[in-house]
Design goal:
The chain is of the alpha+beta class. The chain has two domains: 5-68 and 103-178 and 286-362, FAD/NAD(P)-binding domain (3-Layer(bba) Sandwich), CATH 3.50.50; 186-280, 2-Layer Sandwich (D-Amino Acid Oxidase, Chain A, domain 2), CATH 3.30.9. The protein is built from 13 helices and 21 strands. The strands form four sheets. Strands 1, 2, 7, 8, 9, 10, 19 and 20 form an eight-stranded mixed β-sheet that branches. Strands 4, 5, 12, 13, 14, 15, 16 and 17 form an eight-stranded mixed β-sheet that branches. A three-stranded antiparallel β-sheet has the order 11-18-21, with no helix packed on it. A hairpin with a 6-residue loop joins strand 9 and strand 10 (153-163). The chain is globular and about 65 Å long. The two termini are 38 Å apart.
Length: 418
């Protein structure tokens, strides 16, 4: 039977492009179908240090260093009590990488996609995957079209199909079950500003996470004078604002800023650079991450609240793991779901470790831990290790004691698919 490539990758975001780069370095052929034309705007602009291992592996780290502002840590600020707490990645248990980067996603994603093409992946922008083709339970390819010739639908065949379509979740929307996650029914409002407050020196690139009564803000500084600013708010607050006249995303964003002393202070001399956008109810989980000759990577496998900047990190790391799993499966000639069991287990472990801590933040217990005065050094190192993205331990040896402690202390509340 004709095979157009070893792996069809649906989506050219960080997960899809990183996967294509990893596959190319393993001498496996990949076709990447990306519906949009890059560069394009996207949120999720703060990277984590533990992603740098993958960036080094695929050879893109030097480009990131040249283009983007270094991020050495995170600062949390409470709008109710005026407390602050700073964390530096060098305090983590794994200190191989002591910094990450703050990246306008239009530029970052474009760099990764071009890099994959440079390594030999067949990257096709403005191509839309319409349907995944199956023979029984096994994925064998997709029906797709070039959006410049939408009437011409073609069949592309591969040995493995990977859904990296982000929140579009092509496979999940058509064949898998998708569930919202408890306590994460939030809405994010986001924009860019010039001339917001920044810390000085090496802390200039640190993310500022401002906690307020009904949610939290992110302040992500880029190289230059532009900062990404977002407000994440509870469903209850959203409903109340609607009852009192808020309609457009900018209305909700401005009201959130007015409710926070820190956000108001940070933006008092700032100039908004783009209209406020919004994403509602963005956290979800997929019931199954892999099947016969198919698997999910990145946001397509589920999305968490962006509190700890997990989106791009989970995409990049899961792409690296997926490339290894696919290469091993193809070498054995077995691409059944069982062949991807360790991949699924590893990604679930990482996501659930993050999930438990995020849910504990919204319940209040972990939020108080973040601001706790006179913290023990071990506790600071645990928190900083999570903030640095050190969550992929399953399948690579014994779980570190600190991670096991977090799993027990803050178990994830998982949705039911019954």
């Amino acid at each position: 039977m004709r095979q157009d490539c070893d792996v069809l990758v649906l989506g050219g975001g960080p997960g899809g492009s990183t996967l294509a780069s990893c596959l190319a370095m393993k001498n496996l052929s990949a076709i990447v179908l990306e519906r949009e034309t890059f560069p394009r705007f996207h949120i999720g602009e703060s990277l984590l240090p533990c992603s740098c291992e993958v960036f080094h592996k695929i050879g893109v780290q030097d480009v990131l260093e040249d283009r983007f502002l270094r991020k050495y840590g995170a600062r949390f600020l409470c709008s109710t009590t005026r407390r602050t707490a700073s964390y530096t990645f060098a305090e983590a248990f794994n200190t191989r990488f002591d910094h990450a980067y703050q990246v306008p996603r239009a530029d970052f994603d474009h760099i990764l996609l071009k890099h994959a093409a440079g390594l030999g992946a067949d990257v096709r922008e403005r191509w839309e995957a319409i349907e995944v083709m199956f023979e029984g339970e096994r994925a064998v390819g997709v029906r797709a079209r070039n959006l410049d010739e939408p009437e011409k639908v073609v069949e592309l065949r591969s040995r493995v199909v990977v859904d990296a379509t982000g929140r579009d979740t092509l496979l999940a929307s058509r064949s898998r079950r998708k569930a919202k996650i408890a306590r994460l029914d939030k809405t994010a409002f986001f924009t860019h500003y010039k001339n917001t407050f920044r810390e000085e020196g090496t802390r200039e690139g640190n993310i500022q996470i401002v906690v307020w009564q009904h949610g939290w803000f992110w302040f992500i500084p880029f190289r230059g004078d532009v900062t990404s600013v977002g407000a994440v708010a509870s469903a209850e607050w959203i409903r109340e604002q609607r009852r009192t006249g808020a309609k457009e995303p900018g209305d909700f964003f401005d009201r959130a800023v007015a409710d926070s002393c820190w956000a108001t202070e940070f933006l008092q001399n700032a100039e908004r650079q783009r209209n406020v956008g919004s994403i509602a109810d963005f956290s979800y989980r997929i019931d199954q991450l892999a099947g016969d000759s198919w698997l999910f990577v990145g946001d397509a496998a589920g999305f968490l609240d962006p509190l700890f900047s997990t989106g791009a990190h989970l995409a990049v790391k899961s792409a690296d793991l997926a490339a290894n799993a696919i290469a091993e499966a193809l070498a054995r000639g077995d691409t059944s779901r069982a062949a991807f069991a360790n991949y699924e287990k590893s990604v679930r472990y990482a996501v659930d470790l993050f999930l438990g801590v995020v849910q504990a933040f919204y319940k209040g217990e972990f939020r108080e831990t973040l601001f706790e005065a006179n913290q023990r050094q071990t506790l600071r190192r645990i928190i900083t290790s999570v903030l640095s993205g050190d969550v992929f331990h399953e399948g690579v040896g014994p779980q570190p004691h600190w991670a096991s402690f977090l799993v027990k202390q803050y178990p994830a509340e998982l949705p039911s698919f019954a």
